[in-house]
Amino acid sequence: MGRPMSITPSSRTEWMAAACAAASGLLLFAAFPPLEWTWAAFFALAPLLALARRVPARMARKLAFAAMFLFWLLSIQWLTHVTVAGWIFLSAYCALFALPAIRLANRWRGGALGFAAVLGVAWTGGEYLRGWIGGGFPWNPLGVALAPWLPGIQLAEIGGVWLVSGLVVFANALVAWAVAERRGWRAV
Questions:
Q1: By CB neighbour count within 10 A (0-12 exposed, 13-18 middle, 19+ buried), where does 72 fall?
Q2: Residues 6+ positions from 123 with CB-CB distance below 8 Å
Q3: pLDDT digits (tens, 9 = 90+) for 61-79
Q4: Helix axes 57-75, 99-107, angle to 10 degrees
Q5: Taking a C-beta distance cutoff of 8 angstroms, is the pair 175, 169 a contact?
Q6: Helix and strand element counts for the chain (H, E)
Q7: Distance between CA atoms of residues 155 and 121, nearest Å
Q8: pTM value?
Q9: Where would a tag sit more exposed on the chain, N or C end, judged by fewer CB atoms within 10 A?
Q10: CB 77 within 8 A of CB 134
């Protein structure tokens, strides 16, 4: 007989990182219908991006996938009327498109503006690709969460939903950078 398996309790850091991931997934869901808490779009990614700055790369990827998987499960739950397996598979597939941006967040060693700009482009690029690869599923790009807020959505006239998404991620990334680097709100 082999040695019995021991269970190692999770550390405080792991629990905080998991809470940040769950908060991001739930805030992202809240930004879209049926809740339409437009303000949530400006803070939804901040916990996830901040944790990506503070934890090892592998943990950042796992928790980012979990956060986005949670978001997609809640966002496309209407798909359960058609197929439960398809709902789970599509949620997992859509969650993958956030991982390149999370990798950049984890590896970034520059300043706040560069961090925010790079993440805005990477996240929006992932949303754009999700709309084209494998037949495409362009559902819920982050810029759509601003639809009820007329001043914010008017930017779509210049650069479409992608510009709006990029600017929302830019704002989230600035907040995340200030929190992760412990610079305080004046840095934002």
A1: buried
A2: 45, 98, 101, 142, 165, 166, 169
A3: 999 999 999 999 999 999 9
A4: 150
A5: no
A6: 8, 0
A7: 16
A8: 0.92
A9: N
A10: no
**Paired tokens of 111:** 């300043």
Average pLDDT, the chain: 93
Distance (Å, whole) CA 138 – CA 119: 19
The CB density around residue 184, as the number of other CB atoms within 10 Å, is 9
Task: Give pLDDT tens digits for 112-166.
Answer: 999 999 999 999 999 999 999 988 999 999 999 999 999 988 999 999 999 999 9
pLDDT band at 38 (very low <50, low <70, confident <90, very high): very high
Spatial CB neighbours of 2, under 8 Å, sequence gap ≥ 6? none
